[in-house]
Design a protein that fits this description.
Layout lengths: L1 E8 L2 E8 L14 E7 L2 E7 L1 H17 L23 H13 L12 H10 L2
Antiparallel strand pairs: 1-2, 3-4
């Protein structure tokens, strides 16, 4: 929907535009509440869905997502909630993870990124 306003100020004509975007559910044609993206076989898809249909999609994929390995991307947050993340994490924490890994007979370098799987194992062991 496009609304155009004109204002006559003598010789000058000012115009303002207001554009309203309405999402339409790609499944049932109703009002969509969100746009979702997902990938399958190397192809990325986007779909606009109502909260009800988005829930159905999430439920349908939940079993597969629960057994899948994340390979990229981040979970989306609401607008304005981004928190900067310090690369490499806390030095003391990294050292503790390395010491724990070695005590478990795992090979790990003295420097560099610690594999996410190893961090998860450490956290599970210390929960």
């Amino acid at each position: 929907m496009l609304t155009v306003y004109t204002f006559d100020l003598g010789e000058q004509l000012l115009m303002a535009q207001k554009t309203i975007v309405e999402l339409v559910d790609d499944l049932d044609g109703g009002k969509a509440d969100e746009s979702l993206t997902f990938s399958l076989d190397g192809v990325e898809y986007a779909i606009d869905l109502s909260a009800k249909n988005a829930g159905k999609l999430r439920d349908a994929l939940a079993q597969f997502v629960g057994h899948a390995q994340r390979v990229g991307g981040r979970k989306q947050r609401g607008a304005g909630t981004r928190t900067p993340v310090k690369a490499g994490g806390d030095k003391a924490q990294n050292q503790a993870i390395r010491e724990w890994a070695r005590s478990q007979g795992k090979q790990i370098s003295d420097r560099g990124r610690i594999p996410a799987e190893l961090i998860a194992e450490f956290q599970a062991a210390h929960a």
